[in-house]
Amino acid sequence: MNCYNAATHRDERGTVSPDERLLTPNEVAERLALSPVTIGHMLRAGTLPGQKLGHLWRIRAADLDTYIVAGAEAAAKRRDARAAAAKRKAAGLPPKPHTKPSVARKPKGKA
Length: 111
Description:
By secondary structure, the protein is mostly helical. The chain is 43% helix and 9% strand.
């Protein structure tokens, strides 16, 4: 897999990082088994961290690894929640109620 190495890439502090490994959307699509078009949508929506260099998108390899780990952790959490719900159902217990954070509402009338 070829990686794009941009000697002019600057990090948040503005310093040049010549050793930074940057991936193209096509390389990310290959790693995630997704379409390059889907990767473009994810980059524009901000769901996949990336940076635009000129008119080209580049994704830091470290950011992609973090994204993959976070996705795996979220999937494990969902899987555990489904398993707990199945156990409750098998034991004849009611489903666990959903909890939503309370939202402070303004009283009706004059403000």
